Amino acid sequence: MVDNFKYYSELKEISNFIHSNPELGYNEFQAVKVQCDFLRKCGFTPEFSFSDFPTAFRVNYIPDWADNQAKTVAFFSEYDALKSLGHGCGHNLIAVSALTAFLSSVERIKKEKLNLKVTLFGTPAEENFGGKIDLQKLGAFRDIDYGFICHPYYRSGLDSGTLAVSRFDIAYHGRSSHAATAPADGINALDAMILLFNSIGLYRQQMDKKSMIHGIITNGGEMANIIPELTEAHFYLRTTENDKLAELEQRFSQMVEAAALATNCKFECKNRPNTYLASKKSPDLENAVKNEFEKLNWDSSYIDEKISSDYANLSQDFPLINFFFGITADNAKVPLHTVEFRELAKTLYAFDQAVTSGLLISRVINL
C-alpha cells in the first residue's frame, strides 16, 4: 500500500498546498519553498545555481561508495499552473511523483548499495516558457545519463511520443477611424486577423494529418464603432516530426504576410523562444516501465493522444522516458487543461497514483 511510504503524509500536504496555491511559470516561489523545505527536513541541500531562474533547483544524492562508473539518474519535478485554470494539468502530482522517485531511489541505493547517483531537478515554467530548455541551454543536464518523468492523465499508459510545437505572436497594424462617418479613412487590422484565421481554416484541407495550427485572438479591437488599428493573436504550430516543423512555420508565415497585403496592414510575426521538439524514444527505459505496469495491472498500451512538453528537448541529449498514470478510478475520459481535470488532480486517488508512479520509477533506476 502506498500509504506505507514513510513520506506519504508530508507529500500529501505538499500536493494539496501546490494545488491550492497555483502559480504561473517562473513565479512558482511558494511551490519551490514547500518542496525545498521538505527536502531539507529529509537531510538534503537544494542548490539554486541557476541565477536567472530562481524557481529552478537541484538536489543530488551521491553515495560514499559511488565510483567513476556510477551513472546519474534524473527526476523532474514540475509545479507551474495554467492561467485561469490553476492546476488543470495536474503539475502538483508531477511534483509528488518526482519527489517520491527521488526519495525512494535514495532509500533503495542505500539498502542495496547500488553504484548510482540520483538527482532531482525542480523545473519551472513547462506550460508556456519551456523551463527545461532554458536550463538545458545553461548546461544543467550535462552530467545526466538517463531520466524519468511521468504525467497524470485520465488513464494509465505509455507515451507514444510528443508533438513538436512552436509558438507565434502575431500583430496587425492598421489605422483607426470612425466606423460610421469615415470608414474609408481606416485600415482595418481586424480584417487582416480574420483573413489569417480563414486562411488557416482553408489550409487544413491540405495540411499534413499529423500537423495542426490553433490560435486565439488576444486583442480584437477596442470598440465596435472604431475601426481597429491593432489586433493581436497567439498561435501554436504542432507536428509529430521535428523536420516538418520548419515547413509548417514557413507556410504559416506566408499566410500571415498574405493577410497583411490583402488588407493594406503592416504585420509582426514573432516566434517565441524555446520551440518544443518531438520526443526521442528510449526503448530500454520503456520496456522497464512496461514490465512494472504489468505487475501493477496497469494498462500498458500507448496513449494515442499526444501532448507537447519541454522534456522532449532533453530526450535528444540522453535517454528519457515519460509515462502516464491514470487519475480517474473508472478511466472516464476527462481531458487535460479543464476544470474537471483540475478537480480530479486534488483527489486522494490521484495522489496515490502519483506516489505509486514515483515508487515504480525507483524500481527501474538500475538499468
Please give a handful of descriptors for the protein shown.
367 residues; alpha/beta; Aminopeptidase; Alpha-Beta Plaits; 2 domains; seven-stranded mixed beta sheet; four-stranded antiparallel beta sheet; 10 helices
> SSE order in H/E notation?
HHEEHEHEEEHEEHEHEHEHH
Q: Gap between N and C termini, in Å?
A: 25 Å
Structurally, how many domains make up the residues? 2
Strand content: 15-25%
Shape: elongated
Question: Which regions contain 5 or more consecutive residues with pLDDT less than 50?
Answer: none
Given the helix and strand composition, which structural class is it? alpha/beta
* Nearest-integer average pLDDT: 96
CATH topology of the largest domain: Aminopeptidase
Describe this structure in words.
This protein has 367 residues and is of the alpha/beta class. The chain has two domains: 2-162 and 278-362, Zn peptidases (Aminopeptidase), CATH 3.40.630.10; 164-271, Alpha-Beta Plaits (2-Layer Sandwich). Helix content is 36%, strand content 20%. The strands form two sheets. Strands 1-3-2-4-11-5-10 form a seven-stranded mixed sheet. A four-stranded antiparallel sheet has the order 7-8-6-9. α3 (91-112) links the parallel β2 and β3. α3 runs parallel beside α10 and α5 (189-203) packs across α6 (242-263). The longest helix is centred in the N-terminal third of the chain and has 22 residues, at 91-112. The mean pLDDT is 96.
